Amino acid sequence: MAEGDIHTCREGGLWKNRIEGIRRVANTAARRTDAVSVGREMAQARGVGHFVHGEPRSNSDGEIVEQSSYRSAARVR
After folding, report:
1. Main-chain phi, psi angles of 22, to 5 degrees
2. Beta partners for 7?
3. Helices (DSSP H) in 12-68: which residue ranges?
4. Gap between the Cα atoms of 2 and 77, Å rounded
5. Which of 8, 25, 75 minimizes the C-alpha distance to 46?
6. Which end of the chain is less packed: N or C, by CB atoms within 10 Å?
7. Is residue 1 in some structural domain?
8. How many CB atoms lie within 10 A of CB 25?
9. Confidence band (pLDDT; 50, 70, 90) for 72?
10. Cα-Cα-Cα-Cα dihedral of 19, 17, 34, 56, to 10°?
11. Rounded to the nearest 5°, which phi and psi values hold at 31?
């Protein structure tokens, strides 16, 4: 995972998209599908990775259940 990647996760009853390296939440959604869709669009526009975390459990913070990369070959180092 690299700085700028998008993480979609559930926190405090909402689905949130966070940009890695930035403390503030980029956006929120009540439904997972809405948050994943927006997170995917953000990652594609930024040319970064998108990581979708599962529902958090009492013993974890939500494992990554999906991941996609939208980096161009020129950006991968």
Report:
1. -120, 130
2. 18, 51
3. 32-46
4. 11
5. 75
6. C
7. no
8. 13
9. confident
10. 140
11. -110, 140
